[in-house]
Amino acid sequence: MRVIIDAFGGDFAPACTIEGAALAQKELGVGIVLTGNEDIIRSYIREHDVKFTDLEIIHTDDVISMHDEPTSLLKTHKDSSMAVAFKKLSEGEADAFVSAGSTGAIVVGGTLIVKRIKGVKRPALASMIPSPDKPYMLMDMGANAECRPEMLQQFGIMANAYLKRVEGRSNPKIALLNIGTEDTKGGELQQEAYKLLSKADINFVGNIESREMPKGVADAVITDGFTGNIALKLIEGTASTLFKMIKGALYKNIINKLAALIIKKDLYVLKGKMDSSEVGGALLLGVKKPVIKAHGNSDAKAIKNAIRQAKYFYEGNVIESISQGLESVEE
Amino acid sequence: MRVIIDAFGGDFAPACTIEGAALAQKELGVGIVLTGNEDIIRSYIREHDVKFTDLEIIHTDDVISMHDEPTSLLKTHKDSSMAVAFKKLSEGEADAFVSAGSTGAIVVGGTLIVKRIKGVKRPALASMIPSPDKPYMLMDMGANAECRPEMLQQFGIMANAYLKRVEGRSNPKIALLNIGTEDTKGGELQQEAYKLLSKADINFVGNIESREMPKGVADAVITDGFTGNIALKLIEGTASTLFKMIKGALYKNIINKLAALIIKKDLYVLKGKMDSSEVGGALLLGVKKPVIKAHGNSDAKAIKNAIRQAKYFYEGNVIESISQGLESVEE
After folding, report:
1. Which contacts (CB < 8 Å, 24+ apart) does range A251-256 have?
2. N or C: where does chain B have the smaller number of CB atoms within 10 Å of the terminal CB?
3. How many CA atoms lie within 13 A of B171 on its CB side?
4. Å between B26 CA and nearest CA of chain A
5. Of A73, A76, A75, which Cα lies nearest the Cα of A86?
6. Are A188 and B244 inside 8 Å of each other by CB?
C-alpha cells in the first residue's frame, strides 16, 4: 500500500514528516508519497542522509497554514501540499492520507475532495483517549459543532466499524455522552439520538455521564463536535493542571524532594500517558479513504505512528464496513 | 437573618442537616428554620444533645426523593419538606434556603415557588470549581440543558454580580466556554452569546477553551447547562481517575511505597482539594431569594458551609445587584 503525506503540514514540517515517513517505511514496508516543495524535501533527505526504498515526491510550492480559512483549501490554496495530497488520494494514487496540518482544512479536504462514503451525512473526527485499562474512542471531537440526531447515529455505526476492524474489539460498547443515564435526559438532540442509536445494529449501551468516561467503561463515546471538543481539551487541561499541582507538592520541602527522586520516573510515565489527551492521530471517519490527522506538534515518531494507523485503517477495510453498517440502517 | 433548611434533603438527612444547622448557628449566629417531620427532628436533637439558641421547626411528613420527577414538587410532593421550605421562603418567613435534596426539584421550586427576579429569562446553577490559585465559577452547570443566547448573556451578568458581592472580586473576568478563541467559533448559540456578552456591562474577556479553564484564568466560565454539566463531571472524573492511577504507581514496589509514605499526606490534601469538583454548594442564581443546593452527600460540615454561603449571598445583596445588572442591559 501507499500512504500519501502532506510533507509541509505541522509545526515541525518538513523535517519530522520526512523522518517519520522514512521510519514508517522501514518498519511497516509501506510506499511513501510526499507532497510539497521537492527541492526542500530532496535537500533535507540528502543532508540528513534519510533512507527511502520506495519514495515518490509530488512537487508543489504552496502550503496552507493553521491561520488560513479551512475552505481556502479549495480555492486560494488548491495547490498547497495538503490539497494536492487529497487530490492524488482521491484519484487513487495512494491508499491513505496523513497530515499534521490544519484540522479544519483536513475536514474540508476529506469531505469535499476525497468525498463522503455513500449515505454518510457528515464525516466526523474520532480520537482514541487514554484511560487506565485501554483507550476509548471519542467522536465527534470537533468536525461538526452542530449535529442532528441522525448524524450521531451514524457516528456510532462508524465508531463500531473502526473499533472492530482496527482495534480488534469484538463487540465494542458504544455509549452516548449525556447529563444523566435515563433515556429522557439531555436536550432534543440526545433524546432523539438515543432512540436512533438503539435501533442501529451496534452494541449501544445507552447514555454515559462524563464522570464515568475517563474510566474507560465504554469503547466509544458518541457526542456532537462541540461537546466532544470541549471534553477532549478539558481532559487534557485537567490532567496538565493536576500534574503541575502534584509537582508543586513534590518540591514543597527537602524531604518531599527526596521522595520525589524515587517516584518521579513512574509519575512521568503516567504523565506522558495521560497528558497527551489522545493516543495517536485523529481519524476522519465517513470519507472514502483513510484520512489521519496527526497532532500539529508531531515529531518523527508521532508521524510514523500516524502512518501505522493509516495502514491498519486501510488493511482493516473500515470503509467497506462503514458502508455495510450504514446500509443496514437504511433498509 | 434566618435560613430555612430542608431537613430531609440529602443522603445523610436529617442527621447531618440538623447537626450542620446547629454548627452554623453557633458559628454564624443565624436563625434556623427546619422543615420536616418534627417528631423525628426533636428526638434526634434530644438524643444527640444538639444545641440550638434560635430554632423553628415547620412540621411536614412528606419528602421528595432523588427519584421523583422534579415537577412533582408542585403536585404530589407539594407538602414535602423541600416544597414547604420554598413556600415559607417565598412568604418571607426566611431570608435564604438550603437543601441537599434533588437538584431538579430545587430548580423547579426556586423558579416556580420563589419565582424569578424581574427580567430573568431562566435561573441557572452556578458552582465554584477549584483551581490552583482560586476557585472560578462555572454557570450554568445543569439547570437548562438547552439555552438561547440571551440566557447566556444573563448568566454572565448574574455571575458578575455574585462574584463582586460575595467573592469580593472587583472586576471579575467573565468568559464564554467555546471550541476556539475567535468570535466566529462554535455554533449559533456561542456566536450570538458572544455578541450579547460583549454588550453587557461586565468584564467580558471573550471565549475560553476548555483546556485553559482548569488553570483558573477566568473568574467565571459561562456555558449552557448541557455543556456545563458535562464539564463539571468530567473534571471530577478525570481527577479521580488520575489519582487512582497515581496511587497505583505509588504502590508499585517497596521503594515507591517508602517514598509514598513521605509525600502521601500532601497528595491527599491535593486530592481533597481537586477531587470534589465543587467548592461548597451550587447557587441557583436568578430567583428572588438566595437558594443553595448542597451536595447530596453533604456531611454536617458541608451543610454548615452551605449555610454560610447562604448568609454571604443574602448579606451581599446579590439579588438587588442582579436586578440592576439586568436593567442596565434592557435600557
Report:
1. A252/B266, A255/B262, A256/B262, A256/B263, A256/B266
2. C
3. 3
4. 35
5. A73
6. no
Instruction: Give the residue from chain A lying closest to B177, CA to CA.
Output: A230
Ranking A145-159, A238-252, B66-80, B217-231 by mean pLDDT, the lowest is A238-252
Going across the sheet that includes A279-285, the strands are A55-59, A31-36, A2-6, A96-99, A291-293, A279-285, A124-129, A136-139, A220-222, A173-177, A203-208
For strands A279-285 and B31-36, give the pairing. unpaired
Residue from the list A209, A231, A255 with its beta carbon closest to the beta carbon of B262? A255
Question: Which residues on chain B are in Cβ contact (under 8 Å) with A239?
Answer: 238, 242
Find the mean pLDDT for residues B138-158.
97
Beta bridge partner(s), residue A55: A32
Higher-pLDDT residue of B186 and B330 is B186
Contact at CB, A234 and B252, closer than 8 angstroms: no
pLDDT-derived band at B277 (thresholds 50, 70, 90) equals low
CA distance A279 to A129: 6
Contact B187 A252 (CB under 8 A): no
In chain A, which residues have their Cβ closer than 8 Å to the Cβ of B236?
211
Residue A76: CA count within 13 A, CB half-sphere:
8
- Partners of residue A139 on adjacent β-strands: A126, A222
What nine digits make up the cell of A195?
A: 432512540
Q: Do A245 and B210 touch (CB under 8 A)?
A: no
Residue in B236, B244, B262 closest to A211 by CB: B236
pLDDT in tens, A119-146: 999 999 999 999 988 899 999 999 999 9
Task: Look at residue A331 in the predicted model and tell me its pLDDT.
Answer: 56
Walk along chain A (331 residues) in steps of 10 and give the mean pLDDT of each run.
97 96 97 98 98 97 95 97 98 98 97 97 96 93 95 98 96 97 93 97 97 96 97 92 85 82 81 69 97 94 94 97 89 56
**Closest approach of A104 to chain B, Cα-based (Å):** 12
What pTM, to 2 d.p., does this model score? 0.93
Decide if B212 and A142 are in contact by the 8 Å CB cutoff: no
For cell 471519542, name the residue.
A138
Is the model's pLDDT at B324 over the cut of 80?
yes
Q: How far apart are CA B233 and CA B231, in angstroms?
A: 6
CB distance B105 to B122 below 8 Å:
no
* Record: contact A236-B211, CB cut-off 8 A: yes
Q: Are the beta carbons of B259 and A260 separated by less than 8 Å?
A: yes
Nearest to B164 by CA among B308, B329, B319, B318: B318
* Cβ–Cβ gap B266/A244 under 8 Å: no
As given in the structure block, the three cell numbers for residue B51 are: 444545641
Burial of A25 (0-12, 13-18, 19+ CB in 10 A): buried
- CA nearest neighbour of B84 among B2, B1, B8, B13: B8
What pLDDT, on the 0 to 100 scale, is given for residue B187? 93
User: B17 is written with which cell numbers?
Assistant: 442537616
Q: Chain A: nearest CA to B123, how far in angstroms? A: 17
Contact between chains at B210 and A188 (C-beta distance less than 8 A): no
Give the angle subtended at the CA of B77 by the CAs of B74 and B79, to the nearest 5°.
Answer: 95
Residues of B in contact with A296 (CB under 8 A): none
| Window from A143-147, B141-145, B245-249 with minimum mean pLDDT | B245-249
Residue in B212, B225, B246 closest to A267 by CB = B246
Q: What's the pLDDT at A213?
A: 95
